[in-house]
Write a structure and sequence with these properties.
The chain is built from six helices and 14 strands. The protein is flat, with a radius of gyration of 27 Å. By secondary structure, it is of the alpha+beta class. The longest helix is centred in the middle third of the chain and has 17 residues. Strands 1-8-3-6 form a four-stranded antiparallel beta sheet, with no helix packed on it.
Length: 258
């Protein structure tokens, strides 16, 4: 949240995140520069030319991609709301992945010091080749755990970062009811904000693994916000699939419009 007095605001800056600006009360002028013109030294807080130079009124929205310099000046007392969207960096991803390995009791590769260590003139010195050996060991472990990394990544990315909303007038269905509604042409809607991703035939919804035998059906669910029975014509009489779909509907991930 940014409150500005007349002629106030924030000077030129960049954010390591995407920024969504929602203008609250009154008006503010936002200038956005070209990312390529921003100096490497972020202390040089200025940019001469702007690619966006707009005055936002109450209710206006402005999207500023990561790394683009921007500034705001208000001609009157004004309020702006800034939402920052962060992406994962390598350190956080490595930490989270290694924690998942620990949870599942994966065994690592034992580290063995160089056999010539005791023969060196100075056995207390760590040489560049020692660090190369450590790096090679870690790389080898990463290759060994590639399957686990794939599963962890798609599972992690399919999880929402916030609590999902409730499906409208959600109710508990029996598989036969779901089958009948689809046969009658009732559209099935996906819950807003729900993430569904896959790696090959392995599908995940909100961090949960789905039965891989129905990858073609899951692909339809993943690619469309609304589906009808005709899109499921190949699966609508498969009782096992309908049972799996019913579980997802009863969790509130998909719903029939009341």
């Amino acid at each position: 949240m940014l409150f500005s007095v007349p002629s106030g605001g924030i000077g030129p800056q960049t954010k390591p995140s995407d920024v969504l600006v929602i203008q609250g009360m009154c008006r503010s002028r936002w200038r956005v520069g070209d990312r390529r013109s921003w100096p490497v030294d972020y202390d040089q807080n200025n940019f001469s030319e702007s690619i966006i130079n707009e005055e936002l009124s109450a209710g206006d929205i402005l999207y500023i991609p990561k790394g683009f310099p921007h500034e705001v000046i208000s001609s009157e007392a004004a309020m702006s709301y800034c939402l920052n969207f962060w992406t994962d960096n390598s350190l956080r991803m490595i930490r989270n992945w290694t924690e998942s390995l620990s949870d599942e009791n994966h065994r690592g590769i034992e580290y063995s010091p160089s056999p010539d260590l005791l023969l060196r003139e100075d056995p207390t010195e760590i040489l560049p080749q020692d660090m190369t050996a450590v790096q090679d060991m870690m790389s080898q472990f990463l290759v060994q755990k590639r399957d686990h990394l794939e599963t962890w990544f798609v599972q992690e990315m399919s999880q929402t970062a916030y609590e999902l909303p409730k499906a409208p007038e959600a109710e508990v269905y029996a598989p036969s009811q779901v089958q009948t509604l689809l046969q009658q042409g009732h559209p099935l809607h996906r819950l807003m904000g729900l993430r569904m991703l896959h790696f090959g035939n392995r599908y995940f919804v909100n961090g949960e693994s789905l039965v891989s035998d129905y990858a073609d059906a899951w692909n339809i669910l993943a690619r469309h916000r609304m589906i009808d029975g005709q899109m499921f014509i190949k699966f609508i009489n498969d009782t096992d699939f309908i049972s799996e779909l019913t579980l997802l509907i009863n969790k509130g991930y998909w719903y029939f419009q009341p």
